[in-house]
Amino acid sequence: MAALAAAFSVIFHGGEAEARRRHRFGIGLHFLLLSPYLLGHRHHSHDHYPDSHHYGGYSHSPSIYLEDSDRFLLSENTQYALEKVRSWTQVKWSNPRTGIRGAVVAKPAFKNAIGQFCREYEQTLRAGIYTRRGIDTACRLPSGRWENALRN
Fold first, then answer.
1. Domain boundaries, given as residue ranges, for the chain
2. Closest CA to 108 of 100, 96, 99, 119
3. What's the whole-model pTM score?
4. CA–CA separation, 15 vs 34, rounded Å?
5. Cβ-contact 119, 107 below 8 angstroms
6. Helix (H), strand (E), coil (C) string for the chain
7. What are the pLDDT digits (tens) for 114-152?
8. What is the pLDDT of residue 152?
């Protein structure tokens, strides 16, 4: 049973990979992943994101595996929700190619200690019977893009 639980745990995490993901997609997706073994996928060329990063460790429940097109849709819809949509309004999206569906809800904006506008947001992903949720905070850059806030 321990081997099965370990199979569902995410092992990959590193500073350089995190920086590359954020540069490419803008919004971090490090808490969302569905095991490729559950869906029959074994695409090792794709990034895997640690599950439960903001929840104090790794969970033993299945995570949602995202392909590049899923990560792009999630990132762009998160940017849209943070920049254009009223607080507490759900922005839904789906990828018909992979079957992954998601939603983003942004909470009210506030100013951080250095004067940036920031918003906490919740992302929800669904793949088949599996649902994963994650909460994070992003701050608006001078360019207009939103970037996840650094955590101490």
1. 2-148
2. 119
3. 0.62
4. 21
5. yes
6. CHHHHHHHCCCCCCHHHHHHHHHHHCCCCCCCCECHHHHCCCCCCCCCCCCCHHHCCCCCCCCECCCHHHHHHHHHHHHHHHHHCCCCCEEEEECCCCCCEEEEEEEEEEECCCCCEEEEEEEEEEECCEEEEEEEEEEECCCCCEEECCCC
7. 999 999 999 999 999 999 999 999 999 999 999 998 765
8. 53
Question: Residue 14 contacts by C-beta under 8 Å, 6 or more apart in sequence?
Answer: none
Residue 63 CA to residue 8 CA, distance in Å, equals 7
CA–CA dist 114, 112 (Å, integer) = 6
Site of tokens 């789906």: 94
pLDDT in tens, 4-59: 333 333 222 233 333 333 334 445 444 444 333 333 333 333 333 334 333 223 34
Find, among 147, 120, 151, the residue nearest to 136 by Cα.
Answer: 120
Written as six digits, the tokens of 107 are: 């909470």
The residue assigned the tokens 């997609």 is: 25
Q: Residue 141's closest CA among 116, 114, 112? A: 116
